[in-house]
Amino acid sequence: MSTEPEKKPSGCGVLIMYTGLFRRTRRSTSSSALSTQTPSENSKRRRSGSDESSLIVTATTTSATVAKPNAHHPHHPHHHHHPIVPAAPPARKQAHAPPAHAAHMMRMESAITRELDHAIYDHQRSKASGSLVRASSSNFNVFGHLGNIRAGNSNPAPPPMTTTAREPREARKPNASPPPPPTKEPVLCRALSRRLDPEELKTMGNEEYKKGRFAEALALYDRAISLDPNRASYRSNKAAALMGLGRLLEAVEECKEAVRIEPSYGRAHHRLATLYLRLGEAEKAIKHFKMAGDESDPNDVMRAQAVQSHINRCREARRLREWHTVLKEAESAISAGSDSAPQVLAPQAEALLKLQRHQDAEAALAGTPIFDLEASMRFFEPASYAHFLMIRAQVDMAAGRFDEAVAGAQRAGRADPNNRDAGAVLRLARAVAAARASGNELFKAGKFGEACAAYGEGLQQEPVNAVLLCNRAACYSKLGQHKRAVEDCTAALNVRPAYAKARLRRADCNAKMKRWEAAVQDYEALVKAAPGDEEVARSLAEARAQLKKQRQYDQVDDDDEDA
C-alpha cells in the first residue's frame, strides 16, 4: 500500500471540465440544477447569458451542481475519464480572481443597472406617474393600464424596490403560504434586454399601443428615444401614445420634433395636422395636411376649412349674444374634429349656462383635457385660454364644486391678469363658497332659520345655483315649510334634471303634504335611476298605497254626490 498522503481535490478542475462535461450534461441537469440553486445563483446564471467568461466567476458555486449527475450515472461517457470533483471550501471562493475581460463585463452590468435606475426615476418625475418599478439589475416592470392620469403628485417619490432574485431563500418563512393573487388587473411585465435595441423597444411599444396600453407604450418609446434620439418614427409613435393619454400639447411637440428630424415624414405631418385640428388651430392643420402627401385624404383639408368657418361664426354669434347660434356652431366644429379646442368648448359651455342648462354644460366639459397652464399659454392666446378657464370655473360653481371654482378662477387670472371678467368670477366664486360653508355650519348646529338666510345670501349672488337651492330646501323642510322647499327643489331640478338629492327631497316634502301623485312620480324616477336603493323602493310602495287609498276615497265622494 502506498504511503503517499491522499491528495485533496482543489475544485479548480471545473474550469477544465467546462468544454466536455458541462456542455454535455447541461440539458440533463437543467431541472435538477434549478431545484438546488438559490435565487442568487439563478440571478447570476441569467446575467451571465452565453458569455463563457462569466462562467469563471461562478465556477466554484456551480461545481457541486454539475458534478452530482455523474455520481448517479455510472455509465456516463465521461464518468471514467473525469472523477467527481467536490465543491471547494467556502474559504477558497476568492482564490482565483476573474480575468480582466470578466471584470469589465461586471462593470458594464453595474453601469447598466445605474442607468436604468436613473431612467425609471426620471420618467416618473417627468410624467408624474408610478408606472415603472425596479425589478432587477437588467429589467424593469411596466405596470398595467393606468387609465386617466390627469391628476397626480407633482413630486413623486422614487420608485419602490421590489423583491429581487438576489434575496436569499431563507428570508422567507418555510411554511409561509404563497402571496394571494392580485385583485387588480394583471400587470404588464416587460423585460428590457441588456443590449436595449431601440427597434425591439419600438416593436414592443407598438404591441402595447394596439392593445390600448398607452402608458406602457409611452415608456417603451421613451426608452427607444433615449437610445436613438434621431429617429423620427420613435417621436411620431410617442406622439400617438401621448394622444391616447390625452396629453395633446406634448404630442404636438413630439410631432414637431419628428418632422424636424425628417421633414418629408408624411405620417408625422398627418399626425401633427390632426392634433392642430383637434386643438382648433385650423390654419396650421391645413398646412400640415398638405405636407403629409399620400398620408392625407382630400377630405382632411375640407374638414379643417369647415372647422375654421364654424369657429368664426361662433365668435360672431357670441359677440351678438345669440346663444342658440353659438351652441349650434360650436357643436358643428366639434363634430368636424375640433373636440379639444378651448376656443370651441368655452363658448359651448357658456351658451349652455346662459340657457340654464347647467347639467349639459358640465357634461360638455367632462371629458376635456386640462392642460398645463404654462404650456397652454405658450400654445394658445392667453386671453383665449383665460376665457376657457373662467367658463370652467363657472361650470364648477354651478355644480357645487366651489373650491375648484375658486382655483380655476385664480388660474384664469394668472393666464390673463388684464381680464376683468376673470376677477369678477373669482370674487363671485369666493362669495358663494363662503355662503355655502356658513350655511352648512349653521345647519349642523340646528340653526335652520339662520342657515336658510345664509344660503339665501349665496343665492343673491348666484340665483339658480342648484346646490344652494337644495340646501335651502332642506332648511325649509326642517322648519315645516314644505311648500317653499318644493319650490326650491323644483328650481334646482330645472337646471339639473338628474340632481337626485333635490328630487328625493321634493318627493319627501310632497309626501308630507299628502301630494301622493307627485311623490310617486319622483320616487319612480329615483328607482329607475338607482334600482338598488331599498329605502326609496319602500317609500315608493308606501306612496303608491296611499295614492290608491286617496283615489278610492275620491271615488266614494263622487258616488255620494251622484246619489
UniProtKB/TrEMBL annotation:
Pfam families tied to this protein: TPR_11, TPR_19, TPR_8
Region (Disordered): 25-54, 67-102, 151-186
Biased composition annotated in UniProt, kind: Low complexity: 28-40, 90-102
UniProt keyword annotation of Transcription regulation present: no
Compositional bias segments (type: Basic residues): 70-83
Superkingdom of the source species: Eukaryota
TPR repeat placement: 198-231
Gene Ontology CC: cytoplasm
Keywords for this protein: TPR repeat
Family matches, as InterPro entries: TPR-like_helical_dom_sf, TPR_rpt, TTL1-4
Protein name: Inactive TPR repeat-containing thioredoxin TTL3
Organism of origin: Acorus gramineus
